[in-house]
Amino acid sequence: MKIIKAKQSGFCYGVKRATRIALELETQGISRINTLGPLMHNPQEVARLAAHGIIPRDKIEDCVGGKTIIRTHGITRQELERAESLGINLVDAICPYVKVPKNHIDQFCTQGRAIFLVGDQGHPEVVALLSFAKGEVFVISDPTQIPQLDSARAIGIVAQTTQSREVFDEIVTKCRLQYADTKAVFTVCEDTEKRQNEGREMAGKVDLMLVVGGRNSANTCRLTDICRSIQPRTHHIECVAELELVSFKAAGRVGLVSGASTPDWIIGEIEQWLESKSG
Length: 279
Ligand code: SF4
Fold this sequence. Notes:
This protein is α/β, with parallel strands linked by helices.
């Protein structure tokens, strides 16, 4: 079995940075380190960080005392205001790339445009973006969901940072036919795009694809869908134990890609397991 591992693998820039910030707080001896929600969508890594005293809290009210890390996706305006009123000591680990769609939404709102945000309804990044928007924002995940507004309406289109270019481009093309005044800014982050491109290319060259990442990770699920659309033998796995359930029959070449919140140590365990079966 030949294992082909993606170059863009392991934590993305934003998750790596957030993890570093969290572990630095531990080094500083901060007695209580909270994260508002899990620091990343990877249960195994969240459990590892919990062993370092970095504890996810469900609600802002649970974050009183110590320091509270705002994770890569950001925080809602309401949570921010509540944190300020409770005197919670916040540490900003928002990924700089997540701030890009927010800035464009602000600009489009100032221009009086209706915003079409290409994203997943309910995703923390989307929820945070909606909370700060000062205008009308519609969350859409595919071209069929394009709202039917007055065709003279000015439209601004941006994307959640982990969407796919294909879907974004389809939406923009269709919108331009429907709304003459459409402005679009592609705000998917570079890391996501590289991972998706690499996955797409690899899926066409191997007999089986493994996509490693949390089942609660939207970007991993999207990467899985992209790979599966090309290679039907695509498996989304979270950890090495799940490999026992995968049939590698006639899989001479195996592609290995990962979501943005998958730590290197999980990928390393998977590689080792695959190599042990290759010999
Ligand atoms: S996926 Fe992109 S935007 Fe999201 S945290 Fe990682 S680098 Fe930042």
